Backbone:
């Protein structure tokens, strides 16, 4: 019985990867996720220049969802590269870089820098739901923008495969994924957090200082699962990192059956602790034993064939 997965030719000991923006801030924090059972990690998204982000409160956990509007705070790609190098010096697990930008040319510029780091894959975040007012209409809703950004980063990323991270808010996510594929994307991540908000009834104002933020956690899973299903039905050849609301091994299996090759896990650490990665892998192994599945890869997209 094997949980090993190959993604774009890169071997992962299991398909569970740390999603961007949760615990992957420093080399030590990313290595800890590997030590706790993750098959790979995604670093917190980096921008061309340092970014402060939004003022507090920026996040909150609830019974069935987690809400955040951190605002993509990060030290900038130059400082981030130092942590990526430190990670690879202490850990050989697959490392996924992540970047975001406010324009097509800026995406190209930040990509040119980050690919000098020892990353195995590069995720391009065109789908953050809580910075739309700053960057204009979200790129993830436009096939034209998705195509232009994909081409710009592929031009700068000769060595490193490119993964386009898509939004669950896009009604045409399958069309966006197909456009990215035709523009040269090597894979897609489906999905980022969903745009959402809560209101503090005691103070009668939105809980987040930014008013709206990104929703993750169990409540997102059915939406993310449908997005993975739609993307798998639309793209012709590229694989999917299925992300959104995965908290248990059963959740992860569902994502794989829907078409995911890797499975991103992030805010589940809020409910089950940082040991969640190993717990999910163990639960997947139990499922495989029960169903007599020898290779986890045999389940990729299987729900479409039933």
Residues:
């Amino acid at each position: 019985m094997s949980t090993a997965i190959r993604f774009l030719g890169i071997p992962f000991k299991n398909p569970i990867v740390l999603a961007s923006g949760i615990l992957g801030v420093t080399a030590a924090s990313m290595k800890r996720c590997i030590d706790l059972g993750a098959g790979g990690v995604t670093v917190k998204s980096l921008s061309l220049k340092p970014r402060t982000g939004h003022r507090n409160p920026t996040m909150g956990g609830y019974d069935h969802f987690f809400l955040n509007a951190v605002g993509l705070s990060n030290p900038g790609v130059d400082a981030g590269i130092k942590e990526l190098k430190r990670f690879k010096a202490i850990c050989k697990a697959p490392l996924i870089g992540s970047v975001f930008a406010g324009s097509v040319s800026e995406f190209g510029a930040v990509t040119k820098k980050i690919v000098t780091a020892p990353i195995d894959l590069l995720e391009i975040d065109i789908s953050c739901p809580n910075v739309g007012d700053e960057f204009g209409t979200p790129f993830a809703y436009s096939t034209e923008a998705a195509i232009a950004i994909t081409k710009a980063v592929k031009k700068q990323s000769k060595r490193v495969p490119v993964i386009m991270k898509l939004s669950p808010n896009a009604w045409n996510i399958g069309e966006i994924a197909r456009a990215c594929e035709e523009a040269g994307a090597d894979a897609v991540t489906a999905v980022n957090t969903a745009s959402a908000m809560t209101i503090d009834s005691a103070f009668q104002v939105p809980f987040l200082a930014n008013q709206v933020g990104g929703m993750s956690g169990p409540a997102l899973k059915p939406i993310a699962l449908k997005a993975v299903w739609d993307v798998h039905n639309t793209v012709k050849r590229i694989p999917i990192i299925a992300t959104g609301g995965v908290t248990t091994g059963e959740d992860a299996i569902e994502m794989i059956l829907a078409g995911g090759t890797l499975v991103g896990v992030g805010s589940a650490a809020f409910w089950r602790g940082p040991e969640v990665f190993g717990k999910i892998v163990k639960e997947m192994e139990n499922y495989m034993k029960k169903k007599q599945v020898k290779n986890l890869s045999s389940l990729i997209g299987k729900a479409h064939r039933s």
User: Anything to note?
Assistant: Residues 259 and 301 are 4 Å apart (CA to CA). DSSP finds ten helices and 16 strands in the chain. Confidence is low (pLDDT under 50) at residues 130-135.
